[in-house]
User: Which sequence fits this backbone?
C-alpha cells in the first residue's frame, strides 16, 4: 500500500514539473492547428456569378502561395448579410475570409437592423479590384438602346423589371439610380446570386439586369444578351463599342462594382499582412489577369487601408443616393 502511494506521489511530482512546459507549448500547438486548417473564402452569393468566379480563381493561386488549402463556400441570402454575418462571428484567426462587394458598403443604409456593426465587425485585407456594371437585355429583347428602354419605362410605369443578385448589391442600386435619374419606375426583382438572376433574364422572366462585367462578359461574347450601356462615366476600354449610360441618355449616371477581402475584427496584424500579400500576388498573376481584365476589372491589390478608405467613401456616397431615391430600409 505504502509503495503504491509513493508511486502516485512520484507521478504527481513529475506532472507538476512538466506543467509549465506544457503551457508554454500549447500556444505553438494552437498556432500549428490553425495553420493546418483550410482557409475558407465565404461568398455571400450563389455559385455562378462574378463574385464566385473571382473567389475561385484567387483561391487556387492563394492555396499554392500559402501552402494551405483555400476553399470557397457559398452562403447566399438576405442581400449578402447571411454570409457576412457568418464571417463576423468566426474566430479571428485568418481561416475565414469574406469576399465583400458593393452591398457591404450600402447595407448599413438599406437595412435598419444588421446582426453586426459593419464598421467594427471586420478588418480590411485588400481591395482586389473595381469594374463597371453593364446594362444587358436578352438577345431577343425589343430594346436596342437606353433611350428606347427609357421610353418604354415611361410609357408603362412599373411594368419593366430589372434583376439583381440581391437587395443592396451593385445591380440593385445601379437600377435604383437609373430609376431616379431617368425619372422612371422599373420594378426590382432580387435573386440569391447573379447566376439565378441571369438564368431568368435569359429565360425572359425579367427584362434587364445591371450585371457585373465579370458575370455578363461570357453572355455578351456568346450573343445571348445585348449590352446597352456601361455604368461608369466613360466607356470601358474593354467594351469600347458600348456607350456609357450617361452618354446614352441618362446624364450624370455613374456606378461601379468592387471586390475586397475582409476578415473578422481582431485578426492579428501579421495574419492580415500575410493574407494581403498572398491575395495581391494571386490577383497580379497571369492566370487571374487573363480571367478578369478582359471583362473590365481594374486590379488594385493595395494595402488594407486602401480598402478601408474606399469603402468608407462608398458608404457615404450611396447613403446619399438611397436617401435621395427614398429607398426605405427593410
Assistant:
Amino acid at each position: 500500500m505504502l509503495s503504491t502511494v509513493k508511486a502516485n506521489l512520484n507521478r504527481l511530482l513529475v506532472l507538476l514539473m512538466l506543467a509549465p512546459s506544457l503551457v508554454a507549448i500549447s500556444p505553438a500547438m494552437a498556432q500549428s492547428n490553425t495553420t493546418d486548417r483550410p482557409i475558407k473564402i465565404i461568398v455571400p452569393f450563389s455559385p455562378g456569378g462574378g463574385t464566385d468566379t473571382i473567389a475561385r480563381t484567387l483561391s487556387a493561386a492563394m492555396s499554392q502561395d500559402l501552402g494551405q488549402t483555400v476553399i470557397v463556400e457559398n452562403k447566399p441570402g438576405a442581400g449578402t448579410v447571411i454570409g457576412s454575418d457568418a464571417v463576423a462571428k468566426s474566430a479571428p484567426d485568418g481561416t475565414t475570409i469574406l469576399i465583400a462587394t458593393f452591398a457591404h458598403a450600402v447595407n448599413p443604409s438599406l437595412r435598419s437592423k444588421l446582426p453586426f456593426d459593419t464598421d467594427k465587425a471586420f478588418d480590411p485585407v485588400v481591395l482586389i479590384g473595381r469594374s463597371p456594371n453593364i446594362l444587358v437585355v436578352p438577345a431577343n429583347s425589343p430594346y436596342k438602346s437606353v433611350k428606347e428602354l427609357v421610353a418604354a419605362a415611361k410609357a408603362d410605369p412599373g411594368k419593366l423589371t430589372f434583376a439583381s443578385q440581391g437587395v443592396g448589391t451593385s445591380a440593385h442600386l445601379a437600377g435604383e439610380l437609373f430609376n431616379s435619374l431617368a425619372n422612371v419606375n422599373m420594378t426590382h426583382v432580387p435573386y440569391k446570386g447573379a447566376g439565378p438572376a441571369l438564368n431568368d433574364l435569359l429565360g425572359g422572366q425579367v427584362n434587364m439586369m445591371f450585371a457585373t462585367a465579370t458575370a455578363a462578359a461570357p453572355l455578351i461574347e456568346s450573343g445571348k444578351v445585348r449590352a446597352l450601356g456601361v455604368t461608369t462615366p466613360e466607356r470601358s476600354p474593354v467594351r469600347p463599342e458600348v456607350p456609357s449610360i450617361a452618354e446614352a441618355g441618362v446624364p450624370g449616371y455613374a456606378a461601379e462594382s468592387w471586390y475586397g477581402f475582409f476578415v473578422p475584427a481582431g485578426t492579428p496584424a501579421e495574419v492580415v499582412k500575410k493574407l494581403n500579400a498572398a491575395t495581391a500576388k494571386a490577383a497580379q498573376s497571369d492566370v487571374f489577369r487573363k480571367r478578369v481584365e478582359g471583362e473590365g476589372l481594374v486590379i488594385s491589390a493595395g494595402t488594407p487601408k486602401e480598402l478601408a478608405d474606399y469603402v468608407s467613401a462608398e458608404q457615404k456616397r450611396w447613403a446619399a443616393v438611397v436617401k435621395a431615391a427614398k429607398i426605405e430600409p427593410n
The chain has two domains: 38-130+257-324, 133-230. Residues 139 and 222 are 10 Å apart (CA to CA). Residues 12-34 have pLDDT under 50 and may be disordered. The longest helix spans residues 2-36.
